[in-house]
Design brief:
Keywords: ATP-binding, Nucleotide-binding. This protein is of the alpha+beta class. It has 11 helices and 9 strands. The strands form 3 sheets. A 5-stranded antiparallel beta sheet has the order 1-2-3-5-4, with helices on one face. A two-stranded antiparallel ribbon has the order 6-9. It has a two-stranded antiparallel ribbon with strand order 7-8.
Length: 336
């Protein structure tokens, strides 16, 4: 954010100061994400809050409409999302309640993982039970394909400087078609799209707090589970992942979610959905570096690539994709 935008933000906060008892001198960066949005924390004398989060979303890049709409939708579903206290849609500012600064990623340990993931499971099921069609954009074939195309465009060609052979191009196209067909065949629910350890906050009440939901869509039921347990930022032994997914599947079915009766099929759907996501993420992490100058995400590429290779190797239909991924590993390790 340039200085002129910061000046506009400060001027807006000055107008809110009397009502919310803002301590304007305490305005400080809180975090940034993989978009144009930035977040600030500001202290207050208001005993009900203690501090607020200020979102800066440049309207030409990040219109606030989607964030506001999804925030209200998830709040109605019982999720712990930031409360919108003030909004300035024209200039792209929001004053939000503060869910704290303790992420799942920072707090997860061997000892507390079961309880934290159970809380996340409860939240995920609550969101999915609230699902209705024609409320959020559809996670349709076109969107799935655009996401998958990030892998060859940004990861293979831009990041690794690799050009696939004609046969490999055909194999990649066939693998993408298999993944998309599987994803679209799953029951459709509300999908957060980034339901992972950096966007879940450890909170004293109604844990977890949920952030970064503005890109939510209506799509495959396993997507957010894959985000959560095949997390690009933290890895767990496969047996623990299976156990957590089983519990989610059992509890979801018990509470009325439409899920396949065979867990083996559900886990296959979970894996294939995760593979689609990881191919997309490889492209996104490369794009964040080359287009947006955000180098930090490069260090997370090896884990994502490891997930993708392991999953593709487990299914005979995806073996050609596994070979393509394995052929890139050495080049990727050298760059990352």
């Amino acid at each position: 954010m340039n200085d002129s935008r910061l000046d506009i933000l400060r001027h807006w906060l000055m107008g809110l100061q009397p009502h919310w008892q803002l301590d304007l001198a305490t305005l400080a960066p809180a975090s940034a994400d993989a978009s144009f949005r930035r977040y600030f924390r500001i202290q207050t004398q208001n005993p009900q809050f203690g501090s607020f989060i200020v979102m800066d979303a440049p309207p030409q890049h990040e219109p606030l409409e989607a964030f506001i709409r999804v925030d209200l939708l998830l709040r109605e579903a019982g999720l712990h999302v930031p409360q919108i206290l003030e909004k300035n849609e024209k200039e792209g500012f929001l004053l939000l309640s503060d869910l704290g600064n303790q992420t799942y990623l920072a707090d997860l340990t061997e000892g507390n993982a079961d309880s934290l993931y159970q809380a996340a499971t409860n939240t995920l099921i609550a969101m999915q039970l609230a699902s209705e069609p024609h409320v959020l954009p559809n996670y349709d074939e076109a969107l799935l394909q655009r996401e998958l195309d990030l892998f060859p465009d940004w990861y293979l060609k831009k990041h690794l400087q690799l050009n696939l052979s004609q046969i490999q191009e055909q194999q990649l196209t066939q693998a993408f078609a298999l993944l998309i067909r599987n994803n679209l065949a799953q029951p459709q629910v509300y999908v957060h799209r980034d339901f992972h350890s950096r966007n879940l906050m450890v909170t004293a009440q109604n844990n977890p707090g949920v952030l970064d939901f503005q890109d939510a869509v209506f799509g495959p039921i396993t997507y957010d589970a894959a985000s959560l347990w095949r997390d690009a930022y933290i890895a767990w032994p496969e047996e623990r992942v299976i156990d957590w997914v089983i519990k989610y599947w059992e509890q979801g079915r018990k509470r009325g979610l439409v899920m396949t009766e065979d867990f083996g099929q559900f886990y296959r759907d979970f894996e294939w959905m995760g593979l689609q996501r990881h191919l997309k993420v490889l492209g996104i992490f490369a794009r964040l570096f080359y287009r947006d100058g955000k180098e930090a995400y490069l260090k997370d590429i090896p884990l994502v690539l490891q997930y993708a290779i392991a999953t593709a190797n487990r299914y005979i239909e995806l073996k050609p994709l596994a070979r393509i991924l394995e052929s890139t590993r050495q080049s990727s390790d050298a760059i990352s």
